[in-house]
Each structure stands twice: as C-alpha cells, then as structure tokens.
Amino acid sequence: MSDELYKEYISTLKQNKIKITFVRQCVLKIVASRKHFTISELIAELEMQMGSVNVMSIYNNIDLLLNLNLLFANSINGKQIVYEAVAPKLIHINCYNCKKFEHIDYSSIDEKVTETLKPLMQSAEFKLDYFKLDVYGTCKDCKK
Ligand SMILES: [Zn+2]
Ligand SMILES: [Zn+2]
C-alpha cells in the first residue's frame, strides 16, 4: 500500500473538515493500494476486512472522493465503471479486441506528453493539474 498517498488523503479530508470515519479510512487504504477497482470489488474487500458493510455508505464515500478530485471514474465500454486513485499523469491502453484496459507507466513518455500539452493549455488559458489519456487500439497479445 502507498502510505504516502494514504497520508495525503487524510490531510485532504482534514483540510476540508471531513470526518475521518473508520469506513472512510478503510476505503482510502484500498484506494491508495489498488490500481483499478470496481465498486463490487471494493465492497468485497471491505466485507473481508470488516464483516458487514453499509453499501450506501460506500457509495457515499466514492462520491465524496470523486468530488474531492481524489478518484477517477473510468467507464469501460460504457458499462462497467473502474475507479482509481487520481495520479498526475495517466495513460491507459484500451484494446478493442480483448477489452484489456491497462495503465502504461513510462515516465519519460509522460514528460513529453506534459510538455506537449502545456502550451496547448496555456493558449486555452487553462491551468493543467493532471491529465488522463485513453489510447485505443490492439494490444500485443491480440496482434499476434
Ligand atoms: Zn487485446
Ligand atoms: Zn488506470
């Protein structure tokens, strides 16, 4: 788990005067440690940790994190929603064939993309905080 990320979340909650409940702590720990997760995966993991969970409160926590810009919601094929921690630079590959949806984590590519986006955003008078790119095509397994 990324302790640093978790600590950042807690301080963001404090700054926004949001109560740090036990359920919230558990949710944040999972968000900080996982790349992608669905709401049912989150609920299953919380149930393992805590026994029973109030599903409504999990949805409320997800909404809260989305509102605080701590969480991204990716919709896959317009159906399934996959959540993940907001990161400054994200590139996702989406394979048309096997529906693979994955991160690519090459920081050198990220830098170049940021450098390309900066002047574009400046001319649009928009302050860029982070970006998320979705790339579509065929993955290496399907190309064979
Ligand atoms: Zn594929
Ligand atoms: Zn991702």
From TrEMBL:
Signal peptide: none
Cofactor note text: Binds 1 zinc ion per subunit.
Required cofactor names: Zn(2+)
Keyword Calcium: no
One Gene Ontology MF term: transcription cis-regulatory region binding
Residues engaged in binding Zn(2+): 95, 98, 139, 142
Gene3D superfamilies: 3.30.1490.190, Winged helix-like DNA-binding domain superfamily/Winged helix DNA-binding domain (1.10.10.10)
GO biological process: negative regulation of DNA-templated transcription; regulation of secondary metabolite biosynthetic process
Pfam families: FUR
UniProt keyword terms in alphabetical order: DNA-binding, Metal-binding, Repressor, Transcription, Transcription regulation, Zinc
Entries under InterPro entries matching the protein: FUR, Fur_C, WH-like_DNA-bd_sf, WH_DNA-bd_sf
Cross-referenced PANTHER family: FERRIC UPTAKE REGULATION PROTEIN (PTHR33202:SF7), ZINC UPTAKE REGULATION PROTEIN (PTHR33202)
Family affiliation: Belongs to the Fur family.
UniProt name for this protein: Fur family transcriptional regulator
Organism of derivation: Spiroplasma gladiatoris
